[in-house]
Design brief:
Largest sheet: 7 strands, parallel
Structural class: alpha/beta
Helix content: 40-55%
CATH superfamily: NAD(P)-binding Rossmann-like Domain
CATH topology: Rossmann fold
Distance between the termini: 13 Å
Strand order of the largest sheet: 3-2-1-4-5-6-9
CATH class: Alpha Beta
Number of strands: 9
Order of helices and strands: EHEEHEHEHEEHEHEHH
Radius of gyration: 17 Å
Number of domains: 1
């Protein structure tokens, strides 16, 4: 019988984060999803909500204390689905860095300090700290920030145009359907499922993996949903 695990997630109330949470809760091996938020959320079965001030100087320390508690009950992985998405054009680069590097970086350091080995990071296609495009540059810097934390297993998810997302206009999704490869469309449910699959299937592996559209779709397809959904519906989790 597979050992159960927990997932600590930052950004779980967003579109992609919500999809990842839904897929994790549909996984019989997932004993608990711990959502770190700035404000309380509605109670849900198998979901623990921990309200923290993500902008506080001691956010990393509070995250580490939380992660230690979760680890005391069994294996756990960490996920960051933080992202501004279409709203990034209204943000200054300083504001983007404060969120994507500051908050996500502190969350990652706290998780690592507590002993969590696997970290899943939502990024974006084309991310590079050397990019001349602001958003791609900040995403690349975020990746480097988390990379330097030193997780035994780091999975970076670089989606192209995320469809099925409230922040993606229909015409953008239409254009994305014409674009092949890593910059084209990926459904947010597939993205969420690939994150759940990474945690469920690859938590024991070491090293860094970067998953773009094709790899995410392949991983999600390998992750059979019928048995997982059956367990949830029948109360066998």
């Amino acid at each position: 019988m597979k050992q159960s695990f927990a997932a600590i997630i930052l950004g779980g109330t967003g579109q992609v984060g919500g999809a990842a949470v839904a897929e994790l809760l549909a996984t019989s091996e997932c004993r608990e999803v711990v959502m770190v938020t700035r404000k309380p959320i509605a109670p849900r079965s198998r979901v623990s909500n921990v309200v923290l001030d993500t902008g506080a100087a001691d956010f990393a320390e509070h995250t580490a204390a939380l992660a230690r508690r979760v680890l005391s009950e069994g294996p756990a992985s960490a996920v960051s689905c933080v992202g501004v998405g279409s709203g990034s054009m209204r943000w200054s680069e300083e504001e983007l860095r404060r969120l994507e590097l500051g908050v996500v970086g502190a969350f990652a350091r706290g998780c690592h300090d507590a002993g969590i080995a696997q970290f899943c990071l939502l990024s974006a296609a084309g991310s590079s700290a050397r990019s001349r495009f602001r958003y791609a540059r900040v995403m690349g810097m975020k990746e480097d920030t988390v990379r330097h934390v030193g997780f035994a297993r780091l999975a970076v998810f670089r989606p192209g145009i995320i469809v099925g997302n409230a922040h993606t206009p229909a015409w953008v999704g239409w254009l994305g359907s014409l674009v092949p490869g890593s910059y084209g469309n990926i459904d947010q449910r597939i993205l969420g499922r690939s994150i759940a699959a990474e945690i469920t299937l690859h938590s024991k592996e070491a090293g860094e993996v970067i998953r773009e559209n094709t790899a995410m779709k392949k991983l999600a397809a390998q992750f059979k949903s019928v048995p997982r959904n059956y367990c949830v519906r029948s109360g066998l989790n």
